[in-house]
Amino acid sequence: MAEPTADRPHARRPGGRNARVRAQILAATAELVARDGIAGFRYEEVAELAGVNKTSVYRNWPDREELVVEALLRYAEDLASVADTGDIDRDLVDFALALAGGLETPFGRTLAQAVQPARQNSTVEALTKVLDQRVAALRRRIDTAVDRGELPPVDSSFLGEMISGPVHLIVDRGMRPFTRTDAERIVAVVLAGIRANTLRG
User: Which residues bind DNA (predicted)?
Assistant: First the structure.
């Protein structure tokens, strides 16, 4: 009966210690998955890297799949961000650069492998939320640009695919680093085509 008291000397700060423990566990999980892949990590390794007892991992996440998903979603939050500087050309260039940077990380490679059609499972379906968040953020930025007159009316999903597709192609080939010049060329060609199409219409 004395165990909870001995194990939690700082009970006067509700949630404080547990929040820190959870954050350590999530960070450790993301690091291990990025290093070894989704199927390669064990709770024992998570606990050791996080500096916590294995029971803390099990207590917070009795379901291994939920731990992986929550860790990677938190780790990937930055991949979903799209700046709004008021200059759509610049913002799309920055987005393409950030996307390439994310894809070149161990996490990005793990995510790309995980979402292959042949590997579909419930974990992978949940991980696609990362991609969904990124697509939604980009669509919102494009729609805002249309509302402001920075761009002619355009299908934001299609424009996003036209920007993202070449980034994936260059990064996946692994022949050379993706540069700002690459991003600027992609954005310039895509937006010039969209704007020219509108003028012809």
Answer: 42-61
